[in-house]
């Protein structure tokens, strides 16, 4: 799996892996390969979402009318 893959491509791969596994009509080795590919795709999606989240800032208007930015999510904890 390439790190150059887009979020959308990784998500599509994940959906395809899940669909193959849900059918339940594939040999065990193929099911394991699909599961591993799905985990890799899910991890790539998670990393890409975290990178985007880190870039997003929230614009906040102060009481004096000025604006400041703060990281997305503020002080929230996972």
Query: What is the multimeric organization of the chains shown?
Result: single chain
Overall mean pLDDT? 86
The poorly predicted ranges are: none
| Gyration radius from CA atoms, angstroms | 19 Å
Order of helices and strands: HHEE
From the N-terminal CA to the C-terminal CA, the straight-line distance is 27 Å
Roughly what fraction of the amino acids lie in strands? 5-15%
Quantity of strands, as a count: 2
Shape: rod-shaped
Strand order of the largest sheet: 1-2
- Helical amount among residues, as a percent range? 55-70%
- Structural class of the secondary elements? alpha+beta
Count helical runs.
Answer: 2
Reported for the largest beta sheet, the result is: 2 strands, antiparallel
Textual characterization of the structure:
With 78 residues, this protein is of the alpha+beta class. It has helices spanning 7-23, 28-55, and strands at residues 57-61, 67-71. Helices cover 58% and strands 13% of the residues. A hairpin with a 5-residue loop joins strand 1 (57-61) and strand 2 (67-71). The two termini are 27 Å apart.
């Amino acid at each position: 799996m390439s790190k150059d893959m887009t979020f959308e491509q990784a998500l599509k791969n994940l959906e395809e892996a899940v669909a193959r596994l849900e059918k339940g009509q594939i040999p065990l080795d193929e099911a394991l390969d699909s599961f591993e590919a799905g985990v890799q795709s899910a991890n790539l999606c998670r990393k890409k979402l975290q990178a985007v989240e880190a870039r997003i800032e929230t614009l906040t208007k102060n009481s004096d009318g000025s604006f400041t930015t703060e990281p997305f999510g503020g002080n929230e904890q996972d």
